[in-house]
């Protein structure tokens, strides 16, 4: 952009908004608009995205049309624009048809520079026809992530925007969002059909956060966490994220035993207990909250000094969001990820549970049809446990996957489930574990091995008794679930352990009977969803094995090509050490020797 135009923009910034300078990303985005380049702007909340289209509107001839789902805010925005001398109006469901018609006439005669429009207006054919008569020079899509089904706030009405853009003469488009995931970003570009889009993305760096990965020996993570928390009395408050509810319950007990004021939070608790826990943590009564990913949204505690991950998160997005809850006050804070190679298995287990193979879904449907045909009244509902369903299948699948498969069949209208019934399993040793081991015959080698592994890894759980999930434990111990259950059942028969099997069942009614081969599922969508989940897990795992700056890796993952090394993560510190020793660059070998 030529200097004269730059000066003019700064002048307008001062006159209309009383700001002395642009914030990161704003000027570049406005440049793009003035050069007629379609642009996707990704800046964090509060970074000043609105100013980009508001200031551009002042320079452009004709009208800037702003699409926003936040209709409650439109009036305020318009009022404050009017106050600083920018003529603006809005059209949404809060105004009458007469008023809408009046405003449309005024818009056409050039009364306004900026017009806010709610996306659902584009369902109205008469309205769209009116739009054809308006000269629009900039089409701004605010909260643009609403167009993506992968985002957190999908609005089908946003899918109509690409048509709307054509109706108003295909002006330059600016899409704005604070959701920095590549997937959502690509989806915005695709769904709006943005041609040759430029992406402006900055401001997601968190310079006060110190990231590190801590390699942990199998079964030793809790010990390391306890060591860390007890070694520094002035640590401040923090969150420890764990992958499962049972792990959360276990960890909080150990921490409490070591005199650490810890509370636990997961979705299995009732609302009252969860509120109580949140309160304890917010007021500082509890130093640490041990939580599953259910904890965090809406937590507005600014002085969280650390976020520890006991288990590998499934995606970089989830990790950065959770870790990013540390240090909101800008003070130095740390984000530790404890890692062991086997961590991936728990995540894969969750992915498998979330994404059953389509063939399995069809097999389950087939099994349900056969079961129902045994009933006298085929329209009656049948009560089945997930285990019964699992047994009927040609390959072994986790029960969680059966739950998901039933959900999919329900969503597609093949079955309905009036009620779901579940209860957890329970396992507790009744004697000292060594004594129990001694009771196993020396010849039963594989039984011995499993019992040994179980004792090594889950001794404290076995002593207190816990919500034992055979599938999860089998994965962690790297043994077969059936073999594990055989050992547990044998020990229960000898009254050496107390074991209650889980009951996960459901009442099912068949709504549609078709050949299983004719069941109509979104196969492509299901496959794509599973593939994406694995890809994201791979990217999360590469974070662990990164040799370069950890924060830079995350920011680049989000597409910020200007990201630079943070200078304080474990890898940056190692790099600096090597450089201080005189090494120019560093090799993997050198790195590992640090
Ligand atoms: P976003 O939509 O990115 O979440 P907003 O557009 O609502 O953020 O702006 C957040 C705040 O930042 C507003 O109060 C706005 O006036 C202010 N702001 C925007 N640009 C600047 C700037 N260049 N200098 C100072 N404050 C700014
Ligand atoms: Mg905004």
Topology:
Elements: H1 3-17, H2 26-34, E1 39-42, H3 50-59, E2 63-67, H4 71-83, E3 88-91, H5 97-108, E4 114-117, H6 125-131, E5 136-141, H7 161-167, E6 172-177, H8 182-191, E7 198-201, E8 209-215, H9 221-231, E9 237-241, H10 245-257, E10 262-265, H11 271-283, E11 288-291, E12 304-309, H12 316-323, E13 333-339, H13 343-354, H14 358-373, E14 382-385, H15 386-392, H16 399-411, E15 415-423, E16 426-429, H17 433-438, H18 445-464, H19 470-477, H20 481-493, E17 497-500, E18 503-510, H21 523-545, H22 550-557, H23 570-580, H24 588-593
Parallel strand pairs: 1-6, 1-7, 2-4, 2-5, 3-4, 5-6, 8-13, 9-11, 9-12, 10-11, 12-13
Antiparallel strand pairs: 14-18, 15-18, 16-17
Helix pairs in contact: 2-3, 13-16, 13-21, 14-16, 18-20
The structure holds adenosine-5'-diphosphate and magnesium ion.
């Amino acid at each position: 952009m030529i200097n004269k135009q730059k000066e003019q923009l700064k002048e307008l910034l001062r006159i209309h908004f009383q700001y002395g300078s642009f914030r990161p990303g704003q000027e570049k985005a406005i440049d793009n608009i003035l050069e007629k380049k379609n642009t996707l702007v990704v800046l964090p909340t509060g970074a000043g995205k609105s100013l980009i289209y508001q200031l551009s509107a002042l320079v452009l001839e004709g009208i800037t049309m702003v699409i926003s789902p936040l209709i409650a805010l439109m009036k305020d925005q318009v009022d404050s624009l009017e106050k600083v001398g920018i003529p603006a109006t809005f059209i949404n469901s809060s105004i009458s048809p007469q008023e809408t018609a009046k405003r449309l006439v005024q818009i056409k005669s050039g009364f306004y520079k900026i017009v806010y429009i709610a996306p659902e207006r584009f369902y109205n054919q008469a309205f769209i026809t009116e739009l054809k008569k308006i000269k629009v020079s900039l089409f701004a899509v605010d909260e643009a992530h609403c167009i993506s089904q992968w985002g957190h706030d999908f609005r089908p009405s946003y899918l109509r925007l690409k048509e709307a853009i054509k109706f108003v003469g295909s002006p330059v488009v600016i899409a704005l969002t604070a959701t920095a995931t590549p997937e959502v970003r690509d989806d915005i570009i695709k769904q709006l059909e943005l041609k040759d889009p430029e992406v402006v993305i900055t401001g997601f760096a968190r310079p006060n956060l110190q990231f590190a990965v801590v390699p942990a020996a199998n079964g030793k993570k809790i010990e390391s966490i306890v060591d860390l928390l007890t070694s520094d009395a002035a640590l401040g408050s923090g969150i420890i994220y764990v992958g499962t509810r049972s792990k959360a319950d276990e960890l909080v007990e150990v921490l409490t035993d070591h005199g650490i004021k810890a509370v636990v939070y997961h979705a299995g608790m009732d609302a009252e207990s969860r509120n109580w826990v949140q309160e304890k943590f917010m007021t500082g009564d509890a130093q640490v909250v041990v939580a599953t990913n259910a904890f965090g949204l809406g937590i507005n505690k600014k002085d969280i000094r650390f976020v520890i991950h006991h288990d590998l998160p499934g995606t970089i997005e989830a990790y950065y969001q959770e870790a990013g809850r540390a240090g909101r006050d800008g003070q130095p804070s740390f984000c530790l990820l404890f890692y062991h190679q086997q961590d991936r298995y728990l995540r894969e287990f969750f992915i498998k549970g979330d994404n059953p193979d389509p063939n399995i879904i069809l097999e389950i449907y087939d099994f349900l049809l056969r079961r129902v045909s045994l009933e006298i009244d085929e329209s009656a509902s049948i009560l089945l446990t997930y285990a019964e369903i699992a047994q009927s299948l040609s390959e072994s699948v986790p029960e969680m996957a059966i739950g998901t498969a039933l959900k999919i069949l329900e969503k597609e209208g093949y079955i309905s489930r009036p009620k779901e019934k579940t209860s957890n399993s329970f396992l507790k040793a009744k004697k000292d574990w060594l004594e129990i081991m001694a009771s196993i015959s020396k010849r039963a080698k594989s039984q011995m091995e499993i019992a040994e592994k179980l004792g090594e890894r889950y001794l404290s759980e076995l002593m207190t008794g816990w919500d034992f999930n055979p599938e999860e434990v089998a994965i962690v111990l790297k043994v077969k679930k059936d073999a594990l259950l055989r050992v547990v059942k044998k020990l229960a028969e000898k009254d050496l352990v107390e074991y209650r099997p889980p009951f996960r069942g459901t009442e099912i009614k068949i709504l549609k009977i078709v050949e299983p081969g004719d069941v109509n599922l979104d196969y492509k969508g299901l496959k794509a969803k599973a593939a994406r989940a694995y890809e994201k897990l791979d990217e999360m795992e590469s974070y662990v094995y990164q040799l370069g700056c950890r924060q830079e890796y995350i920011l680049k993952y989000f597409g910020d090509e200007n990201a630079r090394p943070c200078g304080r993560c474990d890898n940056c510190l190692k790099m600096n050490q090597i450089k201080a020793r005189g090494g120019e660059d560093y090799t993997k070998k050198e790195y590992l020797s640090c």
